[in-house]
């Protein structure tokens, strides 16, 4: 996970580091890019959703390298179907992929020669995932309107927010999205895709 100091100052002018060449299927093109992660060495990996693949760019690369999927839409362990999010686990040198179209989360080794992913969690409608310093994985379940937490190596998650059906009460969520912030204390932020102005306590 990228470690950004709290007093960092950002430049006011951005540069394109990935894509920017119209949509297409070549290794320097993207088609509906979504989730991305940046490692400490500035390697960028991102979801190229409509190509059903995860593409990686190392600093200075002109072309991306497919590191997961890229074999058409499908449900085999070497395929993805409309992936939505990824996270990089630098401690284990693995990539965690939210494979939404197949209702599963896969883990891919980043070692050269890896041909397929390993199933971590299946049969659930995930959209996003984040991981904290204690290596807990948090995933948004957009079907059950809940956020679940998974310990490393476990397949059964614990509901930490929502899970009481779709609604406007404080114990309910409506298609949750996740983000993660780091400061002196960690926090998990949950945003609802369909928010209501009439929330009820």
From TrEMBL:
Gene3D superfamilies: TolB, C-terminal domain
Superkingdom of the source species: Eukaryota
Annotated InterPro entries: 6-blade_b-propeller_TolB-like
Protein name as catalogued: Uncharacterized protein
Native source species: Rotaria magnacalcarata
Upper lineage: Eukaryota, Metazoa, Spiralia, Gnathifera, Rotifera
């Amino acid at each position: 996970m990228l470690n950004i100091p709290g007093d960092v100052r950002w430049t006011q002018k951005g540069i394109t580091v990935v894509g920017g060449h119209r949509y297409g299927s070549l290794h320097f093109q993207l088609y509906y890019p979504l989730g991305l992660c940046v490692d400490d060495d500035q390697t960028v990996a991102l979801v190229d959703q409509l190509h059903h693949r995860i593409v990686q760019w190392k600093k200075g690369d002109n072309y991306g390298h497919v590191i997961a999927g890229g074999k058409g839409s499908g449900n085999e362990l070497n395929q993805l179907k409309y992936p939505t999010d990824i996270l990089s686990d630098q401690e284990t040198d693995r990539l965690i992929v939210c494979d939404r179209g197949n209702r599963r989360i896969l883990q891919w080794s980043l070692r050269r020669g890896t041909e397929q992913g390993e199933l971590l969690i299946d049969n659930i409608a995930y959209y996003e995932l984040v991981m904290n310093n204690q290596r807990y994985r948090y995933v948004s379940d957009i079907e059950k309107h809940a956020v679940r937490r998974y310990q490393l190596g476990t397949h059964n998650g614990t509901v930490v927010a929502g899970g009481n059906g779709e609604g406007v009460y404080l114990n309910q969520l409506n298609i949750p999205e996740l983000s993660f912030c780091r400061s002196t204390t960690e926090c998990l932020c949950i945003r609802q895709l369909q928010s209501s102005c009439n929330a009820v306590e």
